[in-house]
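README: folding subset

This subset contains proteins for which both the sequence and a predicted structure token string are available. Records are stored as plain text. Below is the entry for Glycosyltransferase-like protein (382 residues), shown exactly as it appears on disk.
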Amino acid sequence: MSSPRIALTTYSVKPRGGVVHTLELAEALSARGADVTVVALAEAGRGFFRPTAVPVHLVESPPPAPTLEERVFDSIAALTDALRRIGPGFDIVHSQDCISARAAARVRDAGAGFRLIRTVHHVDDFTTQALIDCQRAAIEEPDEVLVVSELWRRLLAEEYDVPARVVTNGVRADRFAGTLDAVRRKELRAEIGAEDRFLYLTIGGIEPRKGSRHLVDALARLRHTRPDPPMLAVIGGHSFQDYRAYREEVLGGLEAQGLALGRDLVLLGTLSDDAVVDWLHAADGFAFPSLKEGWGLVILEAMAAGLPVVSSDLEVFGEFLTPDVDAVMTRAGDDADLAAGLARLLDEPATRTRLADHGPRVAARYSWANTADQHLRIYRGS
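--- output ---
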């Protein structure tokens, strides 16, 4: 198969990691001459969070259901109906998540002639048996499984007995490089009261997997022990899963910890691509204390922008980060160690400068063009 017709499928049009991966991969494949279309669930009248340079087929998402289980299975049904109509037009359907993989498998098994490939970015910690079984099927049913890290290749082999190939992630380093006009930088910081304070940025909203509670607890430690405590700006917040109770618990505990929403922690919400880049250049450091990740693409984006990073020491981060060379890495889930790591960027200007200078060189190793070439070899059966 020299020029396969490819559909990349995803569950959303909002800026979550897997969705960003889908768009970036699709555009890199197209730049290599591939025939690629992105198929995604979207609310009526909504499009992707940014303009796209490839054909897009949007499938209207079902009305919100009261439980996660219902939302997942309703979404699978909606994508299944759509792929029944358009699936025969593709040689390869490459799914980037559990929902679209289950839908594609149903259509393939009903007689569609496409080859089903699935990238497993991570495995969710579902709590109902129906969702656990659904996730397992979405890993076991595809014709071929890809992962973006060696850690997840090993975990799928050990826990699911599924062989997977590693394809490296990418970052559009040129988009994040450069500088922000000094006047605009000052304006952004003034908008949130960060004129003279050290400003940490994090991306991913407030949710358990991102270690948000640990980050807030570490911030509180610094508030109580330093005359110059940093503040934190949070970008993002959309998730298919409902983390409202967790979010309310974290934010509801701020006052008891001596923190104030709007003074020490600012929620920037979902921003445009350009606004995210601006904030990466307006901040002083990037905090990413995740407890579970498939890779950690936003770390590379921050590094490409020249922002020094404080991260957790997840094994998967160790595939592209070296402690104290590429980032300050702290023990995952350890509030005290995270607070100490955050303090280092305030107290060690040489460390800030070294990490900021080194970051773009690390990001440059991971291009989407290289990622696209790896995928094309797989699509063509090599």
